[in-house]
Amino acid sequence: MKIAFVNPSVGFSERRKSVPIGLAYIMAYLEAKGYQSDGYDFGDSTTPPAELVRKYELWKYDLVGLSVYNESFHITMRMAEEIKFLNPASFILTGGPQATATHETIMSDWKLIDGVIRKEGELPTHSLVEAIDHKTDLADVPSLTWRDSTGTTRVNCEMVPLEELDSLPYPAASFTGEYEYPPLHFFDKLQDTLRPAIAINTSRSCPYNCNFCGVLTIGRRYRSRTPASISNELEFFRNLHGRDYTHVYFSDANFFVRAGRALDIVRELNRFDDRVTFSFGTRVNQVLRARDVIKEMRSLGLRFIELGIENASPAVLARLAKGVGPSVNEAAVRLLNRLGVDIALDYIMIDPASTIEDLQLNMRFLERYFLEYYPHDHFYTSLALYEGTPAREMYEERRGGKFETGVLPATRDVLERSETVIWWEISQGFRRDYQRRIDVTLAKGETLLRHPAAVKALAERSGPWYDLSCFQLDVISLKHAPVVFFRRLIDLIADGKAPKSAGDDGLNQGYGSRDSTLDDLIESSRVRVEELADLLQLPLGELDQALHLSGAAYE
Description:
Elements: E1 3-7, H1 21-32, E2 38-41, H2 49-55, E3 63-67, H3 73-86, E4 91-95, H4 97-101, H5 103-109, E5 115-117, H6 122-134, E6 144-147, E7 153-155, E8 175-176, E9 185-188, E10 193-200, E11 203-204, E12 223-224, H7 227-241, E13 247-250, H8 259-272, E14 277-282, H9 284-289, H10 291-299, E15 302-310, H11 314-319, H12 326-339, E16 342-347, H13 356-369, H14 390-399, H15 411-414, H16 418-450, H17 452-460, H18 465-494, H19 505-508, H20 518-535, H21 542-550
Parallel strand pairs: 1-2, 1-3, 2-8, 3-4, 4-5, 10-13, 13-14, 14-15, 15-16
Antiparallel strand pairs: 5-6, 6-7, 9-10, 11-12
């Protein structure tokens, strides 16, 4: 039996960083049960889906499992359509959070789909593969939504979530794609080194009720693995890949649900190899409940926490069902700052019901606590209304109608106030016209200033030290430019003086030590990098090599 699992494209090329871990677990589980499968990851592909089907001969498989997200739904359906056109006998299976949320709609409206596996996939997919292989009744496959011989949609009983996560094989699976995976790294600022990194999942689900989170579609029953299984997985993948991984990105939805369990895991990692550093994601209130645990973790290699702050407005936090207020967010940030733990910011700058007053609260919070934070992605974030989430249902009720199945509503189309529409359009214009140029110039400028030759010149006041000192000010101005821009934008809109575009004089003037336009600051900084590299007599290409090595800090 020929089996393939496919991660379809989300329609742009910046998504694919590492293997799709959900599919990898399913493939590894099937292999352990005697069924081989092939993996395809097109998450970063811009090639038309029908062309991908033909190029990689996906139509030749007996079963094709397609992982479905809101962003990839219609591309997935076009891929399924092409497979069915070329091979009507192929069984097309879908799964994932979006498919789980809309399983009955998929089966009623998309006749080319033969089945949907709801929630977690390892055991149900194995049961389905055996049923197809041995030609037995699909009614016995747990968590499967399918059509019987009369065309009636059947929803099989749901499988109880797997409790013994240690019983699953490690997610060792290979994926073919349009491009190779870039090596995963972590830039360790404390030791000024680029660490080979790996993502490891130690638990499933999250017991909290944030109403926008897609994790809710798989249920809230939290389950976890044992510490020994984590260090064993690290050793397994070191041997398999031939890479000395020394940073672990814990990819759990919420690694810190049980602080004691999390501490046991990192103690075990430290016992296994005390060079290993790590990072994880969690909520603000959990950080505050376990201050002593965080403090010990800091000594065991904790480098940063991806913190679900989300917003600074009480009204927005209430709509998101976060269960905390702005004071809790601020207390968690202050605690991690005191302990020297970096924060990776999870933030939702705007939701459909946001007001300019909400945006002003966000700016005050970001200016106070994250003025130096980079990258600037948080300015461009909005609430994604994923299918199956209470947030989507809430805004459907406010609008008086359902959103289209398989479509993630565009932010501009769901904003409820004209002034926030203006803010959104101009912010996206700034992102398009300025942010990328700022990113590239800032990365090169900071890399230059960290180069040993520049550090030596500044310390000894030798060579082009004065020019380097002036350039430091420009780099700082460049880093703060988006903060300055968005503060001006929000204040102008609040005062009833909404600009027409990101290039308006009221937004684009007064940057840097020379009070120049933002365009001039970016261009002059770009030129100064090249001039200073020449003055420092850096060999051709050395700066680009240094930039490549430190590039992980800008991803």
